[in-house]
Amino acid sequence: MSTATFRPSDAQQWHSARVDNATTARRVARARARSIKTEAKDRLLRLALSMVDLTTLEGADSPGRVRALCRKAVQPFAEMPELPHVAAVCVYPTMVPWAGQALGADSPVKIASVATGFPSGLTPLPIKLEEVQRTVGLGADEIDMVIDRGAFLSGDDQRVFEEIAAIKEACGGATLKVILETGELGTLDHVAAASRLAIAAGADFIKTSTGKIKPAATMEVGLVMLEAIREHFLATGRAVGMKPAGGIRTAKSALHWLVLVAETLGSDWMTPERFRFGASSLVGDLLHQIARRTDGHYASPRRFSVD
Predict the structure, then answer these.
(1) pLDDT digits (tens, 9 = 90+) for 188-222
(2) Which of 31, 55, 281, 288 has the fewest CB atoms within 10 Å, i.e. is most exposed?
(3) This prediction's pTM
(4) 207: annotated active-site residue
């Protein structure tokens, strides 16, 4: 239940702080250059796997495709059953019941669903609220909503804030991830302001992208969002999660992201409860690298399923 209230003075504060682009670039470069010891790398590859939201958001989605996705979510690689399951499967609202049937009531894998007129967010608020309520009623544990980027970029912070707060209330007990679609926001200053706004309105997670727009999850954007989370936590004690989505395809990239999270927010955010990857294609390379480190050699890519 959201109790967030919009105050014009907050809007001024969200937009007042400016991002130092050069410092941001240097911090990202340092994270990319960080050396990770072998033992830590083994652990982090498995941790990254456990943080993935395994996703299918295509017009050709079907119950059979969702069932296959759920099987992979629970057991990513049958040859190594000791590997962790992923954090969630993410599907369209109509596919939520099929995911629920495939996973079962006691599955540790969460069911996430996009909503609120994904990917544009340009549907009336009453329709957005109805979609969220219906989707949660169908069994979704998590809702990934999109903000109205046109309203934000035109300066209508109050509209964006009140929509997020209303959708948070419509979620009931479900987790709310707020997608900023950073590729359409234009500047890191806008990303910072949108992050602060979404967090203040009640977001449980802030998420970079729908995966439909490029650029998507750049590390520079991610650092700005992580700093907004850190700022809010230090001021209020409330922990907000973060989810980069779109364009993260390699295990090496995932490790860079984990370094950035650890250096910015610390070990408390190194968990699927506070950090996710929206990157289904990442799973294949994570499994490839884990198997290599276990077997001592690279296996054929055909050994791993491709989504």
Answers:
(1) 999 999 999 999 999 999 999 998 988 889 999 99
(2) 281
(3) 0.94
(4) yes
